[in-house]
Amino acid sequence: RASRLAEVAMAMMGDAVVAAAVVDDDARDVEDVEDIFRRGRAFGGGAFDAREDDGEGGDDAVVVVRGRAARPAVVGVRRGDAREEDEEDEEEEVEVQPDDEFEGTYAGGGAGATTTPGRAKIFIHTFGCSHNHSDSEFMAGQLKEYGYELVKDAEAADGWLVNTCTVKNPSQSAMNTVIERGLGKDKAIVVAGCVPQGDRGAKELKDVSLLGVTQIDRVVEAMERTLAGDTVRMLEKKALPTLDLPKVRRNEFVEILPLSTGCLGACTYCKTKHARGDLGSYEISALVARVEQAMSEGVSEIWLSSEDTGAYGIDLGTDVAALFRAITAVLPTDGSVMLRLGMTNPPYILAHLDAVAEAMRHPAVYAWMHIPVQAGSNRVLDAMKREYTVEEFKQVCDTLLEAVPGMSIATDIIAGFPGETDEDWKETMALIEHYKFAEVHISQFYPRPGTPAAKMKRVPTQIVKARTRELTAFFESYQPHESLVGKTERVWVSDIARDGTSLVAHTKNYTQILLPGGEDERARLMGRSAMVKIYESSRWSCKAEVLELVQRDPTVARVKLSVISSEEEAVAIREKLTKGKRVRIKKPAVAEVVEGCTTCGSETPCSSTATSASRYVTLESALFVGVCVGVIGLAYAKLSRRT
User: Fold this and answer.
1) CB pairs under 8 A, 24+ apart, for 475-479?
2) Residue 346 — pLDDT band, cuts 50, 70, 90?
3) What values do phi and psi take at 159, rounded to 5?
4) Is 130 left (phi over 0), alpha (psi -120 to 50) or beta?
5) Which residues have a Cβ under 8 Å from the Cβ of 13 and sit 6 or more positions away?
6) Cα–chain-centroid distance for residue 146?
7) What is the pTM of this model?
């Protein structure tokens, strides 16, 4: 077991240090796997973690594969893709305690057990992005409403729901380890998310139930049948699940709101496209309704989530500018509820920079945005099929930084993309050195099966690691938050730090501020806004003391966004962005407006009250009568011949 976990942890961590103001997803996955192996602690339940080969679904809406028989403990080691393709990674020792040191006991639900529907204990673990976490929250809400108990102890659970991520090999390798562990414990396992949707043939998935990304509203059915002993497949692509499903938030103060699924891109390294497919957006009215519902339930932050926020609404004939106007129009006027914009790729946000800048100047919107660049070389970006140039990325950054004073930008870098030369890497380093982003998410290139990049010639591992170290060293050499020391800032408190005590708050530009914790402070500050004085800064965050709470004031004048494109300009933008792309535009039904009389056909409505044949006899009714008369005549003729 120790060697198995060490292998996964090695694939995840190695020397690929993630430089960001928040812990990287891969690091979280390692810690989560360690936690369940060591302590049986929940990495799911009602408190989730923060942060594609076919994909059409086709004819397998629900397929019962086989009944679940008693399974022997799993002994073999299933290697993740990263280890199979890169045997040069250095191993890391990960200590794993024996099974008998786990806290909690097995609560049944395996072969031969009888579990009353809706009465079992369910354990949930989520890998990946905020969209995945939103899906998990919706699934948790449905399971809880049906009667299932969400538990924090994996060992005590009858069923496991594992929501997966296919972006990188480490996340999928960690998923494999979790599934293997569950099968060894004879748990009823439902695997949801991008891995089963995009790679349903993976050998690790053959003994578990699978739930597709658009099938999350059927999680109760999937879990119930799995607990009963069946292995089901629910992978058919269908319409997006509604946003009014019940929900259990991982953080009661944060609503993660999915704007859409899929994207318009075709990046050569991306596996998510295989799972999430083409762009499919929620209607603005549905999103606004969800925002209002979440606020009524007491949230203090709303995170917009999407594979590409900038592309939102293109399939509906609308855009992010209209979305931002609609959502900010219902936010409280005093900034007691903050909106965080989602990740966006440069190509689609270029057309809406004015609207995005105005949105971030709104008092209830964080002046922060995640804009992945991935590489600072146009040659590499072209090989990635990112559909923008370094110059266009700079245009996005320069425009927003100038228009939104103090805003913060987070970006991503992939080190060692196939074909990346030393000169290409120097250009990437120069880009980061120029902007000195407060957040940089650094990742080694991982070849994902079924993607074009997986077939490209890889850069030697030693070179990839050296580049990762170089960028990490530079990132850690500057202190982006030093200027805040001694200042008084307004912050919004929404979480508890990983030390279990300190409170986590954010400034308007989303700088992380750590505040003194404890039960009293937690009760006083969580979900609230406060004025604080910052007395210390570090690479990742600042520390501050609380001066006073900011009281809610509904009398503050409402701020309305005014950047509105003309219809002609909006159409031109959409045509430019979708040129040569597969986009299904949903055309809203328009009621036909008929002027004049609908019966007689006159240009003006008939005012006569007299009964007139012309007002009731139409061409269709005349034809119908004629056919009926003809049929009756034929029948009468045949009857006459017989007699």
Assistant:
1) 475/19, 475/432, 475/440, 475/442, 476/19, 476/539, 478/436, 479/537, 479/538, 479/539
2) very high
3) -130, 145
4) alpha
5) 26, 27, 30, 92
6) 24
7) 0.71
